[in-house]
């Protein structure tokens, strides 16, 4: 199999599969490929167990062409790179190759399907966060992988089982993708806060911002007759109700909802700090689009979209919880304080 987009998710998932005995090749940028070729890879699972993969075990590429014989490709580029990934893989892969999109957002698999009509493209969800640099990657929140259930997925399921990676197969992944997107509405808030996920989520002001963004999305989804799945111990609607609770109460409840390592921060924070384009159009942008389609206002998601675009354009600064809450409250009130 092949990991297309060796980064946090690609190296962690692909590395775990490789350590579990699967035949895995990696396609990545020269910077990442060179680091893997020099240092190998250290993987730390959520329980803290470390696996070291020595340099000799890696088959690394910077182009898609050498992996023409892969029977399964995991696409792990950001949504900003999906189209380019699809184009790089088109004409390279054999027909019937299984392509699994392990990406946030809703539309990546559809883009890949369009560009790779002879392949079987399956949408997937990575529930957990991965942090790390080019040599060490750590699973930093609890959760597993979730992929569309098709018989073609059997070899991947076997590889996951051998690697100790949790995989859930679902007939319809769309409700889980939307549930993940609701959680990902925290990505811009985390990125704008400049804090780790743990620090950010421990502050009520930021959680209030997330609850507003989620409630707007939930209202738009309800009108679209989309029912998001329950990925965490509490479902999406209850989550939006629990978030604004006072810090003491939230702390007591949060541990049971999702476990977060102190080093974890959102993938959008990584992009924003590195000066890369973020996935904001695929997260808040998706909510705004659905809202427009069904006539549900989404001012908080619109404002987050603008704030992240401004930060991408060079106006990045760290927003305190009070500042961001006031900013989004103004947006909710139509610009009035
Ligand atoms: N990080 C996380 O904790 C989580 C991420 N996700 C989702 O998983 C997906 C992957 O995220 P993540 O692993 O963080 O992303 P990363 O940016 O860490 O990794 C993607 C890598 O792929 C490279 N890449 C992009 N296009 C190509 C190409 N055409 N050829 C070769 N390499 C390429 C990127 O390089 P470059 O940057 O130069 O383009 C980057 O190094 C995203 O949709 C994200 O939202 C989901 C759950 C958690
Ligand atoms: C942190 C997490 C797991 C949820 O927001 C994530 O998906 C990301 O970093 O993109």
TrEMBL record:
Pathway: Cofactor biosynthesis; (R)-pantothenate biosynthesis; (R)-pantoate from 3-methyl-2-oxobutanoate: step 2/2. Residues 172-311 form the Ketopantoate reductase C-terminal domain. Catalyzes the NADPH-dependent reduction of ketopantoate into pantoic acid. It comes from the Bacteria. Residues 2-146 form the Ketopantoate reductase N-terminal domain. The keyword NADP applies. NCBIfam families: apbA_panE, PRK08229.1. Pfam families: ApbA, ApbA_C. One of its GO terms (molecular function) is 2-dehydropantoate 2-reductase activity. Belongs to the ketopantoate reductase family. Keywords: NADP, Oxidoreductase, Pantothenate biosynthesis. This is 2-dehydropantoate 2-reductase. Its EC number is 1.1.1.169. It catalyses: (R)-pantoate + NADP(+) = 2-dehydropantoate + NADPH + H(+).
